[in-house]
Design goal:
Strand order of the largest sheet: 4-8-9-3-7-6
Distance between the termini: 7 Å
Number of helices: 3
Shape: globular
Number of strands: 11
Number of domains: 1
Length: 195
């Protein structure tokens, strides 16, 4: 397949982080693969407030790269380095992470607290650690790959101030032809246009 790199964001540099959290956001618990452990997560009023402030900044004309999330004490805080708002194929991301020297060391999920006016959200979290061997079962690794390949996703990558960066897969589109594909080029997680 021929492809052309998209210029919008630089992409997520995989030479810096010691770990990358890849999160799949789905609207129903039954969309999650079976047999993955659930963890609890409480409400986060500071996160909710930050999201509202970021939306207001964008509405007032600031670019998304100027509205990074800076939440002291949280892993998922930082600056967006890749964001797609069109269907993106991510079915090969697991292989890209493995070939980039990361092993899948943990898979779990949690339910995000219901927020007024929003749909329920369930988040599958995959922790990839640099220099580590994949330590989850083949069944779990395959289940993650199947979820990734089950549709097209919107992708948001965050470069965080600490050694752990974040990749969010949201708004799964079933049966929709992807316009972009997630790949690793020159040790950066980037999107390329499908030609």
């Amino acid at each position: 397949m021929n492809s052309v790199e998209t210029p919008a964001f630089e992409g997520l540099d995989l030479t810096d982080p010691i770990a990358v959290l890849v999160k799949f956001h789905v609207s129903k618990e039954e969309h999650l693969p079976l047999g993955i452990r659930q963890v609890s997560r409480g409400t986060d009023a500071a996160e909710d407030m930050q999201h509202r402030m970021d939306a207001l900044k964008v509405k007032l004309g600031r670019t998304s790269t100027e509205t990074g999330r800076h939440r002291p004490g949280r892993v998922d805080t930082g600056v967006p380095v890749l964001r797609t708002n069109v269907p993106t194929h991510v079915g090969s991301f697991h292989q890209w992470m493995i070939h980039s020297g990361f092993g899948l060391t943990d898979v779990h999920w949690f339910e995000k607290p219901l927020q007024p006016g929003r749909k329920p959200s369930f988040v599958l979290v995959c922790r990839y650690e640099k220099g580590e061997e994949t330590s989850v079962s083949n069944r779990l690794a395959m289940a993650v790959q199947e979820l990734a390949a089950s549709g097209s996703w919107f992708v948001h990558c965050w470069m965080n101030p600490g050694p752990v960066d974040t990749v969010n897969m949201t708004s799964r589109q079933l049966g929709m032809k992807p316009k972009l594909q997630l790949e690793v080029r020159d040790q950066k997680l980037v999107t390329v246009q499908q030609v």
